[in-house]
Design a protein that fits this description.
With about 725 residues, this protein is of the alpha+beta class. The protein contains 21 helices and 33 strands. It has three domains: about 100 residues, Phosphoribosyl-aminoimidazole Synthetase, Chain A, domain 2 (Alpha-Beta Complex), CATH 3.90.650; about 280 residues, 60s Ribosomal Protein L30, Chain: A (2-Layer Sandwich), CATH 3.30.1330; about 260 residues, Rossmann fold. About 30% of the residues lie in helices and about 20% in strands.
């Protein structure tokens, strides 16, 4: 199997076997007018080339059709080791595999490698505040939160560490940690990935830069709780076009030698990578780049996040000696890996950070941000060391420590960083830190509405089904762009219901007709319809959920939904994209499918004008809905969000009516549990901080937050309760 990346068909198919015949006329196209060469070499994303035994082709095509995927036979494997391609019935490529494997002809090049100096950072100023300000404004140190939040960080319900942690969600993690994906069962196995690269070191000495990139990437794994075992690497390389200039060739060669030395000394290998030697445009060259990515596995209970946890704790710095080449001594470094891992495993250390670009100073500052805790440097601290680079070192937070020489300071309750009476406030640093890229990656806009009220409606009675069901069937439709069906099905099954995933096929008119027939049949035998999240139809044009609403307005489907809700006391729920569909159908807040107009509530684009992905706090405003029968009004529940169109809008008259009838189910709230219009808590600027609403009797529930993305060991660096018990409540509605 191979993806259609750079090189297109030639590479994606050409790497699958020694002998191949490719019929380019069979390759499906997004655009007409492509000639044979363009078809053969053009990159084409979202496509995969799979080699399948001849006898299995029909079965594979059937599986693809079930998943609403296009599948086309475009090539066959041949006995003769040649790569042949035909277009319009004419052979346009016919090359031997031997020739392809040689890159056409042997090449030789002389490289002139010269001794290089090693870069040391120099932050402007003499006082702590001046040097911290200089550091925090560096693009390599400044916050990238506004960029990170544009990407769904919780899809798959396996995120162990959120990109930013602490109660304030401001301390960046150093390694991606994700549970191993399993469809139906639970696991505590997780994978970790971290990167290392300092452009300034690499520019001065590609050899040192590449070596330390490997070291940094591995240190980040250790700092996150992993052991130094079963670690593997992959490299991303980018260099200026060398031509035939031996001095220009020195950069990739030096970096290669540095990375190779690090691999050999640490005993870890690179199992993949991607390189480019074309980083030149006219007289502009890219800086020498070798980014190391390190990967390994661990258990979720071993994972430790970097934000400071408690005022009064000591903070130590452990490092290893460097050799005569200004590189870490390998034996000492490996011993340090084991020592740090033991401290984290035993619980003696509760947070850890390995210094990078901004050294200890950057690390301490970022560790403070997450929980709003301050830091007081020890009188023995050396500011040159604090602001110098400290690769192959570890900062650890501990309750107590015997070796005073290793203590660099103390965590404090004060929101500042201090050294010998010189103090800089965290608030001022945070503002500079976040404002640096605010104009590019917006993060902290001012929302438009006024402060909302806390809505409270406690149910005295709820609707109940006339027929009880021990194990209700939950019908989960999968539309083009849906990406939460497996998370939803697992949450449903864990609550004791039976999930039925039904893929809606839209590749042909016949496929749509069959999907309508199948869904209508399943609907008659189900008690709950759950519309999961995603990006139906790519959300364009004119907003999200259009195909979903069109499907549910089909007369046969509409009749089935009406019968479920009005005659069989069934339930419906939609999350994120599903909520958008419910509100456009009128199922919330009206409880039935209607023709909506400009006077109806709607969900529109976030005021921040971008996608938002993070954890938010929600408050139960009403427990009228059967979906919320296990909750009390005022309960606070954390929930992951991931949307670009989650802003709930309605006129005041409608909202007052929803409040009085107990139809506002959940609201976005601040750290004190109060409904908020602050962008930090209300991510989309929803009116009255509304996160979820229901139908008049509560049996149809729509919400933006992904309450299905729950499980043990998730979101360890953002404290809070994540279980709204909506799936258990729905099951109890039918069997209690």
């Amino acid at each position: 199997c191979n993806d259609f990346g750079a090189g297109g068909v030639s590479v994606a198919v050409g790497e699958l076997a020694d002998g191949l015949y490719v019929d380019l006329d069979t390759v499906t196209k997004k655009y007409d007018g492509l000639d044979g060469t363009e078809l053969a070499i053009s990159e084409s994303q979202e496509r995969m080339a799979c080699a399948v035994a001849d006898g299995d082709v029909e079965e594979l095509m059937g599986y693809a059709a079930e998943e609403n995927l296009e599948a086309t036979v475009i090539a066959e494997v041949t006995a003769e080791p040649r790569m042949r391609m035909a277009w319009n019935g004419v052979a346009i490529v016919d090359l031997s595999r031997e020739f392809l494997n040689s890159n056409g002809a042997p090449k030789h090049q002389v490289a002139h490698v010269c001794a290089r100096s090693v870069w040391q950072p120099s932050w402007a100023g003499t006082t702590l505040a001046e040097r911290m300000t200089s550091l925090v404004t560096d693009l390599n140190v400044a916050s990238n939160k506004g960029l990170s939040e544009r990407f769904d960080s919780t899809i798959g319900a396996g995120t162990v560490l959120m990109p930013f942690g602490g109660k304030n969600q401001l301390t960046p993690i150093q390694a991606m940690v994700q549970k191993i994906s399993v469809e139906k069962k639970a696991t505590d196995d997780c994978s970790l990935m971290a990167f290392g690269y300092n452009p300034f070191i690499t520019e001065k000495s590609p050899y040192h830069g590449a070596y330390l990139a490997v070291v940094e990437s591995v240190c980040k794994l250790i700092a996150s709780g992993a052991d130094f075992k079963d670690v593997y690497l992959t490299f991303q390389e980018y260099f200026k076009h060398p031509g035939k200039d031996g001095k220009r060739w020195s950069q990739p060669l030096s970096a290669l030698l540095g990375a190779f030395k690090a691999q050999m000394e640490l005993g870890i290998g690179a199992i993949g990578g991607k390189d480019s030697m074309s980083g030149t445009f006219e007289n502009i060259d890219v800086p020498p780049t070798l980014v190391s990515f390190a990967v390994t596995t661990s258990k979720t209970d071993r994972i430790v996040s970097p934000e400071f946890k408690k005022a009064g704790n000591k903070v130590i710095f452990l490092s290893c000696p460097y050799d005569e080449n200004n590189l870490p001594k390998t034996d000492s470094l490996i011993a340090l890996f084991d020592k740090v891992a033991d401290l984290l495993k035993s619980g003696k250390a509760v947070s850890c950070y390995t210094p990078g670009m901004g050294g200890i100073a950057e690390a301490v500052m970022k560790m403070c941000f997450g929980n709003g805790l301050g830091f007081s440097y020890s009188e023995k601290a050396d500011m040159n060391k604090i602001f110098g680079y400290s690769y192959a070192g570890f900062i650890l937070e501990v309750a107590d420590w015997d070796n005073g020489d290793e203590i660099i300071g103390t965590v404090t309750e004060k929101c500042d960083i201090s050294y010998l009476g010189d103090t800089v406030s965290l608030d001022s640093l945070l503002k500079i830190y976040e404002d640096k890229l605010e104009s590019v990656f917006t993060c902290n806009i001012k929302n438009t509405g006024s402060k909302p009220e806390n809505v409270s409606y406690t149910a005295t009675e709820r609707t109940a089904p006339s027929i009880k069901v021990a194990k209700p069937r939950v019908l989960i439709p999968v539309f083009p762009g849906t990406n939460c069906e497996y998370d939803s099905a697992k949450a449903v099954a864990n609550a004791g219901a039976e999930p039925i995933i039904t893929v809606i096929n839209n590749l042909s008119a016949d496929g749509i007709a069959r999907s309508i027939e199948c869904f209508a049949k399943e609907l008659k035998n189900s008690q709950i319809v759950f519309i999961p999240g995603g990006f139906s139809g790519g959300d364009e044009p004119d907003g999200s959920g259009k195909f979903i609403t069109a499907f549910f307005r089909n007369p046969e489907i509409k009749e089935g939904v009406t019968e479920l809700l009005e005659h069989r006391d069934g339930l419906m729920c939609g999350i994120c994209n599903g909520f958008q569909a419910l509100i456009k159908l009128g199922l919330v807040p009206y409880g039935k499918i209607i023709d909506t107009d400009e006077n109806c509530p709607t969900l529109t684009f976030n005021t921040i004008a971008r996608h938002q992905s993070r954890i938010v706090r929600t408050r139960i405003a009403s427990n009228k809905s059967p979906w919320l029968s296990e909750m009390n009004v005022g309960d606070i529940v954390n929930v992951p969000i991931s949307h670009g169109e989650g802003r709930f809008l309605a006129n005041d008259e409608t909202i007052r009516s929803l409040i009085e009838n107990g139809q506002i189910a959940t609201q976005y709230v601040d750290s004190n549990g109060n409904a908020s219009n602050d962008i930090r808590f209300n991510p989309n600027d929803s009116a009255y901080a509304i996160e979820g609403i229901t139908s008049p009797d509560g049996r149809v529930f729509g919400k933006m937050g992904h309450s299905e993305r729950i499980g043990a060991g998730l979101y360890k660096n953002v404290p809070g309760n994540y279980n709204i018990h909506m799936f258990e409540s729905a099951v109890k509605y039918f069997n209690k």
